[in-house]
Design goal:
The structure holds two protein chains of two kinds. Chain A is an all-alpha fold. Chain A contains 16 helices and no strands. In chain B, a hairpin with a 2-residue loop joins β1 and β2. Classes of the chains: A mainly alpha, B alpha/beta.
């Protein structure tokens, strides 16, 4: 009836099909087919709500998650607009004013460090560093995890076996030891290098989750229907199945951001992370070791790190409660 | 006789399982002619779905495997076709309506998008506006009210009957020349069944697509089909035009199927099922697979030892039965003989 390969087929087909459709429509008995809808004419139709609007309202009712979200917006907002908000540059040295306790004079609200740099500014820039690392690792590891999990779960068989054994291998590696070795070998340094190394570690759990969901969803009839309609593997994987896995992916990604921020801080604390003078929350906390009496050096970045990670986890929990259809009741 | 649109010869489909090889479809041959409606009936597990899914490459492989056979569609063998080439046929020239409309639409994608995708997959150059117009026309064609609004809705906002209408719209989106409907009304309640059948009829009449209708509802067969294949244990046991099959069946299994239906015009206290269980497809009974349940066989040696071949029967050129003793049934009418009740089984 139509040649799928001829370039002018679509338009020709289009016209032909539309003609056909209109004649068909005329042929149907409108009463039988229910084409008359009195409620719609009267403007009484039920307002449709998408699944996302349900999820959104569940999230908005989740108190802890909302608190977490507000806190994150404030803290990360400060990090993003660090150059506008921080009273000083993170590397502005003032040797006349070293190790000053928190004070309102000259806006040193968090005091100053051993070479007189404003500590509030350093913490704010540290937030920016942590945020960049966390978001990058969150995105990169999610992409790796989704691709590996999707291929593994969709194709199954030996492909699945190989990919999952690799995943198991990465999962069993002691992350910290490897990271320290890698940092030592490659040299301590750029934030991006640290981020990439972290991302290469954090995709495993997500890959397993995505694989599991794909394994069960590939047997669904709508996947078969899509195949019967001629869709290719890639389209089925990423158009049909992936949107059904978005819930767990979003939750996992948000929690990964928190975990990556902590691990980056740990690495920097141990001196294998981000190189000074770029401040990172981890290296700021570490610098407090030299000055045990100067409490603000450790406490402020530590507190900020704690709050960030807690807030991220609250938001992650809230997302899970909002996106998991099995768990309708909203906690807290 | 016109050229067949689809010509299946000696198709054998097997599934490897831990218990052994399941012979789901065992050496079947049939033709589908342009514009006709062919019914395939049989119990669960008789191979009626597998026989059509396998030619579309839609059975899971492994464990499934088309062991041998050809399926010539428009001069090309679908069995030997490369996956990519077969994919171009699926949803375009060959379309499928699935059994369960509740699960055949993707819950996270809008119905309009899913229907449009069926067109876009095969005709990527059609503009989005044209696709939308076409999809709305399709929805209207299958009797979905307010197609413009429905276009932007998700499957959960559709009722079962509406979803099946949407699935039918999707299957005819590219004007296929062969439509395979795999138990299209099984998952719907009776009143909706009637509406969906009406839609199928309309669509069929207008698109002139040949249709293979897989069902175990003989009422639907009586209403929609021109010819019927009766399958049992992976084999075709009888085929013929719909009147012959309903009035003068020449295979004990077909007679058993007819007898097991209640006739609405008579007062019947009990249903009369076919005794026994469907055969195991791993260890098929030797000889005729139906002989352990057959009222005609009565333990005759030939039934137990010799696999019966399809032989021409008395109901016209297309009528054939795979029973050694089909002649003994001549003169016997099913209880549905004269007149064929419309929708007798529904």
């Amino acid at each position: 009836m139509t040649e799928p390969t001829t370039p002018d087929a679509p338009l020709h087909l289009q016209k032909h099909l539309v003609d056909q459709a209109s004649t068909l429509g005329d042929g149907m008995d409108p009463a039988l087919s229910g084409l008359v809808d009195p409620t719609l004419d009267a403007g009484l139709e039920i307002q449709a709500r998408s699944q996302w609007s349900y999820a959104r309202s569940r999230f908005l009712r989740h108190r802890l998650a909302m608190i977490g979200l507000v806190v994150l917006v404030i803290i990360f907002g400060a990090g993003i607009f660090a150059n506008l908000i921080a009273p000083y540059s993170f590397e502005e040295i003032d040797l006349t004013n070293v190790l000053q306790a928190p004070t309102t004079t000259a806006h040193h609200f968090f005091g100053t460090d051993e070479i007189g740099r404003d500590y509030l500014s350093r913490v704010i820039y540290g937030i920016r560093t942590s945020l960049e690392v966390g978001v990058f690792v969150g995105f990169a590891s999610t992409i790796i995890g989704v691709i590996i999990g999707a291929i593994s779960g969709y194709y199954g068989g030996w492909i699945d076996n190989i990919l999952m054994r690799i995943t198991d291998l990465v999962l069993t590696l002691p992350a910290l030891a490897i990271l320290l070795t890698a940092a030592a070998l490659l040299g301590q340094g750029s934030q991006w290098r640290v981020s990439i190394i972290l991302a290469l570690f954090y995709w495993t759990t997500l890959a397993r989750i995505v694989r599991g969901v794909f394994l069960s969803l590939r047997e669904k009839e709508y996947v078969e229907a899509a195949k019967a309609a001629g869709s290719g593997d890639l389209r089925i994987m990423f158009r049909h199945i992936l949107p059904n896995t978005l819930g767990p992916i979003v939750v996992s990604a948000s929690l990964t951001v928190g975990a990556a921020i902590i691990l980056e801080a740990v690495l920097s604390f141990l001196g294998f992370g981000i190189k000074p003078p770029i401040p990172s929350l981890g290296s700021l906390i570490a610098s407090g070791q030299q000055f045990p009496q100067k409490w603000w050096i450790t406490v402020f970045p530590g507190l900020v790190l704690l709050i960030i990670v807690m807030a991220i986890n609250f938001v992650g929990d809230g997302l899970r409660d909002a996106l998991d259809p099995q768990q309708r009741r909203v906690r807290a | 006789m016109p050229e067949p649109l689809l010509s299946i010869r000696n198709l054998v489909v097997e599934f490897r399982t831990e218990d052994g090889i399941v012979h789901a479809v065992d050496d079947i041959s049939y033709d589908v002619f342009p514009g006709e409606t062919l019914g395939i009936v049989g119990e669960s597990g008789s191979g009626k779905s597998v026989s059509t899914m396998s030619i579309l490459g839609l059975i899971p492989q492994p464990p499934g495997r088309v062991a041998s056979g050809t399926a010539i569609f428009k001069g090309k063998d679908l069995i030997k076709m490369k996956k990519r080439e077969l994919r171009r046929f699926r949803g375009d020239e060959l379309a499928m309506v699935f059994q369960d409309p509740m699960t055949s639409l993707n819950p996270v994608l809008k119905v309009g998008y899913q229907l449009g995708e069926a067109i876009k997959t095969h005709y990527p150059k059609v503009s989005d506006d044209d696709v939308e117009k076409r999809v709305i026309d399709l929805l209207r064609m299958v009797g979905v009210p307010n197609p413009e609004q429905r276009y932007t809705q998700y499957p959960h906002e559709f009722s079962g009957g509406m979803r099946q209408r949407a699935m039918i719209a999707m299957s005819i989106a590219n004007s296929p020349s062969l439509l395979i409907a795999d138990e299209p009304t099984t998952a719907l309640d009776v009143t909706i069944q009637a509406q969906v059948l009406e839609v199928l009829k309309t669509v069929q009449a207008e698109t002139q697509a040949a249709t293979i209708l897989i069902t175990h509802d003989l009422g639907i067969v009586a209403e929609l089909c021109d010819r019927v294949l009766v399958m049992y244990g992976g084999k075709i046991v009888e085929h013929g035009d719909v009147h012959t099959i309903f009035q003068n069946p020449r295979h004990p299994y077909t007679i058993g199927l007819m007898d097991s239906l209640p006739k609405l015009t008579e007062d019947e206290d009990w249903l009369r099922p076919i005794p026994g269980q469907p055969p195991s497809l791993i260890n098929r009974p030797p000889g005729c697979a139906f002989h352990p349940r057959c009222f005609l066989s009565q333990g005759r040696l030939r039934c137990r030892e010799e696999v019966p071949a399809l032989r021409t029967a008395d109901g016209g050129t297309d009528h054939a039965s795979a029973c050694h003793f089909a002649e003994e049934l001549i003169g016997r009418h099913s209880k549905f003989a004269e007149p064929v009740p419309a929708g007798g089984g529904a």
